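Methods — Computational structure assignment.
A single polypeptide chain was analysed. Its primary sequence is given first, followed by the predicted tertiary structure written as structure tokens.
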Amino acid sequence: MVKYFIILFMCIIPIIGWGQTAEQYIELANKKQKEGKSKEAVNLYSKAIGICKDSSQYFIKRSHAYLTLGLSVEAFDDINTAIKLKPKNAEAYMMRGYIYYILKKADKSIIDYTTTIEYAPTDSMKAFAYTNRASAKILNRDFVGCQTDCKQSLLLDSLNIGALNNLAMSMDELGRGKEAIEYLEKIIKIDSNATFALMNIGYKLSEESKFKEALAYYNKAINAGFKEAYVFNNRGYSRLKLGDIDGAKEDINKSLKLDPSNSYAYRNLGYVNQAQGKIVKACENWNDAVKYGFTKYYGKEVEELLKKHCL
């Protein structure tokens, strides 16, 4: 007990001239982080760490702020410090597992999520760790392992939307589209405004050439607030296939405004201009699609269109 109070006292020493404690800086930093002002949050977390250098939790918080700024090296350094300070801190392993995941280092991510599961103090954290480990297994294309982890997560939390979404993704990768849609529909039953699930159902239906049904799901996603570039692009393609050329063009241009390097949107815009008899513009669009990496990510479809219509 004596040691505990000594550490606590060290962490609330005020800075001369300012009178702020470490906890007060943390409170201010948390507020800035929620407001999306991560750079200011980092500065405030640093002030707290300057007062209390042995708080694992403070380094975790600053690591997260660094990550939102795209500073993965700094985020990684902080999370390693957090683990050194508290080697059984499940939250720190969860955070490092996430950093490895976004760096596409799936094997290391899996190891850290496994450690998180071992040290997790609550079933809720354990369920999230299983879900996140499943995501890392998807990166490794271990879809059976993904399904095993998701089912473990759902045993702990039957309403875990992340686990259901991972199951949908794994089924999709295995070519079991009907089951993928079933899992996505379970998500919508839990949260009728789960916009990503609405969008993904729309995408699966469009793959099956059910463009009218797909359009309805895209509309629901957008009306619920999902305003990402790819949902407008996908809705535009469904509109194109249903003969709504003007609506398709409007949506695809919205997509490109949100993401000017969206190679798939340029491919679709080319199809729209082709449908309007504007072959020169279509060729320009398809050349832009190639420029922004369509062939690398999606194959040679656009190159074949260029050979057929533009050379």
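Note: Residues 123-139 form the longest helix (17 residues).
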